């Protein structure tokens, strides 16, 4: 009986949580775990805010945002690529794109870096605070932050509309990993979160997966306890959780596309063009992402084996559902790492407290004013040590060379702008460079493709892949699309560059260590 009683003392479902379960006598007092979570998330915010911007689909999103503001129109077909005219496009991320463009136009690239740090820092803060409140442990806050950031740092350093979804997702996990109360606050907050999310990024579906596991897990726990699935369904809290999940699902329809947004989310992965994108490949132990996932999975198994805490069915269901998605596509790994980090932190902290002795388990953390001061200091430190704050203090925006990654073709675009007149027709370039060339290049420059591959016809995308790789027939394909100008990357398009240098139809115009501009000798 003592063993059962000890586990009940540790379980958050039975014992009162002194951090979140009691009303604080003084709002100016806070806990050491809160200060630790604030300092860790502030450090991650500063680190991410100084990360250079990579040439990814960020620039495509900026271009779409600019076009929507200029035309005052939410386009329903691909508007920027001449070779993709008429291709249907459900642009779920329209609000993210407009917001990113406004920030960049008003404050420059440092604002984009600030948003990168803010979204990543908020996600880490919510995860670490949830872990500390569930386990009454500073160590849990540190473990959750370390696991999530170290295993997911590559994804957190790439700014795209998905970044805005991370803090929203962790807010849903905050509710699911708590006692999942259906209070008036959560009844208003969560539907509002999903209404906003469905206009920022298509990953709102993963948030609904997390929402659905909470009532499903409660029903399974009640069924096991009462040995009656029908009796478990009579739980009023369960019914309220189901209704709240349905309300959140209905809230996702508050977007310009309605049900078409759901159709886009469910069919997006079936696009054949995604097969050539490595981030949509299944996880492999040979790659760094697969190796990181394997380490985290090992920690999940260890936490399961050593925990004295009762494992809720919700935790198992959520980990299983998101693990399946992550194994199927690398891009989905982030949605598994967040609940996995929480699970590891909570159960490792429970095991450490249990092994530390009964007296240690009974020790209650006490709030203090100096922890509040340290928390405020952490926020102020983050507010001052970031590129945007530096730009606002100096009154000068950061230059491209300070904010952009080395792979960004800054000098190449400057040369394009210096050309008197661009040859007629679409420009062949890397899909990763296309958005940047359109954003910073001369007016009227239109690439053959960009990174919105789902809005490009399969024929055009396959031809792009063949040309990009320098496969036989590349000259004929370029002729078919009336391409007279090519902007090439020496680091990734070596075979094509070698063949174009040998061709009598093409001549180099300009080059540096990174880029090469080739022009057709006799334009089509």
The biggest beta sheet reads: 4 strands, mixed
Q: Give the helix proportion (percent range).
A: 55-70%
Oligomer: single chain
Strand order of the largest sheet: 1-2-4-3
| Integer-rounded radius of gyration | 26 Å
Mean pLDDT: 90
Number of strands: 4
Strand portion: under 5%
The structural domain count equals 2
Q: Could you list the spans in which at least 5 consecutive residues all have pLDDT below 50?
A: 1-22
Number of helices: 24
Q: Which series of helices and strands comes N to C?
A: HHHHHHHHHHHHHHHHHHHHEHHHEHEE
Task: Please report the distance between the alpha carbons of the first and last residues.
Answer: 86 Å
Shape verdict = globular
Q: Which structural category fits the helices and strands?
A: mainly alpha
Question: Which properties best describe this structure?
Answer:
single chain; 524 residues; four-stranded mixed sheet; globular; disordered N terminus; 61% helix; mainly alpha
Describe the structure.
This protein is mainly alpha-helical and 524 residues long. It folds into 2 domains: 2-381, no CATH class; 410-520, no CATH class. Helix content is 61%, strand content 4%. The chain contains 24 helices and 4 strands. The chain has helices at residues 2-10, 32-49, 58-71, 94-107, 109-135, 138-156, 162-177, 184-197, 204-226, 229-232, 236-251, 259-267, 288-306, 313-328, 333-355, 358-362, 369-384, 387-394, 400-403, 410-418, 431-440, 458-468, 474-480, 494-502, and strands spanning 427-429, 485-489, 506-511, 515-520. A 4-stranded mixed β-sheet has the order 1-2-4-3, sandwiched between helices. A hairpin with a 3-residue loop joins strand 3 and strand 4. Helix 4 crosses helix 5, helix 6 packs antiparallel against helix 15 and helix 7 packs antiparallel against helix 8. The chain is globular.
């Amino acid at each position: 009986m003592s063993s059962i009683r000890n586990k009940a003392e540790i379980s958050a479902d039975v014992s009162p949580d002194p951090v979140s379960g009691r009303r604080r006598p003084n709002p100016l007092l806070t806990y050491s775990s809160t200060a630790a979570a604030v300092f860790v998330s502030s450090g991650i915010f500063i680190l991410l805010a100084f990360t250079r911007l990579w040439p990814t689909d960020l620039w495509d999103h900026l271009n779409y945002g600019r076009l929507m503001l200029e035309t005052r129109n939410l386009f329903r077909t691909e508007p920027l690529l001449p070779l993709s005219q008429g291709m249907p496009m459900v642009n779920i991320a329209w609000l993210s794109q407009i917001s990113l463009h406004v920030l960049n136009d008003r404050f420059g690239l440092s604002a984009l870096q600030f948003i990168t740090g803010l979204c990543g820092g908020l996600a880490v803060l919510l995860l670490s605070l949830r872990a500390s409140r569930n386990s009454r442990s500073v160590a849990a806050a540190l473990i959750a932050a370390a696991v999530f950031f170290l295993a997911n740092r590559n994804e957190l350093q790439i700014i795209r509309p998905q970044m805005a979804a991370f803090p929203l997702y962790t807010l849903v996990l905050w509710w699911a990993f708590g006692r999942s109360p259906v209070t008036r606050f959560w009844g208003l907050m969560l539907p509002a979160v999903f209404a906003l999310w469905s206009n920022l990024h298509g990953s709102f579906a993963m948030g609904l997966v997390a929402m659905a596991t909470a009532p499903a897990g409660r029903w399974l726990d009640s069924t096991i306890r009462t040995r009656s699935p029908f009796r478990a369904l009579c739980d009023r809290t369960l019914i309220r959780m189901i209704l709240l999940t349905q309300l959140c699902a209905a809230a996702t329809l508050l977007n310009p596309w309605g049900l078409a947004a759901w159709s886009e989310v469910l069919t997006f992965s079936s696009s054949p063009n995604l097969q050539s994108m490595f981030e949509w490949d299944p996880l492999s132990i040979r790659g760094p992402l697969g190796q990181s996932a394997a380490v985290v999975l090992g920690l999940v198994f260890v936490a399961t084996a050593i925990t004295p805490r009762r494992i809720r069915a919700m935790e198992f269901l959520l980990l299983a559902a998101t693990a399946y998605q992550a194994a199927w596509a690398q891009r989905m790994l982030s949605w598994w790492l967040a609940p996995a980090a929480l699970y590891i932190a909570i159960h490792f902290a429970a095991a450490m407290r249990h092994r530390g002795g009964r007296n240690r388990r009974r020790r209650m953390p006490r709030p203090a004013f100096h922890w509040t001061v340290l928390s405020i200091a952490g926020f102020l430190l983050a507010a001052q040590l970031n590129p945007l704050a530096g730009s606002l203090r100096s009154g000068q925006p950061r230059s491209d060379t300070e904010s952009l990654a080395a792979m960004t073709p800054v000098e190449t675009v400057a040369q394009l702008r210096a050309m008197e007149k661009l040859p007629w027709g679409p420009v062949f370039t890397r899909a990763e460079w296309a958005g940047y060339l359109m954003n910073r290049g001369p007016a009227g420059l239109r690439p053959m493709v960009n990174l919105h591959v789902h809005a490009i016809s399969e024929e055009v995308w396959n031809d792009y892949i063949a040309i990009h790789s320098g496969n036989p027939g590349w000259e004929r394909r370029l002729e078919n699309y009336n391409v007279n100008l090519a902007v090439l990357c020496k680091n990734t398009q070596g075979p094509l560059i070698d063949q174009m240098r040998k061709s009598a139809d093409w001549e180099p115009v300009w080059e540096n260590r990174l880029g090469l501009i080739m022009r057709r000798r006799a334009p089509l």
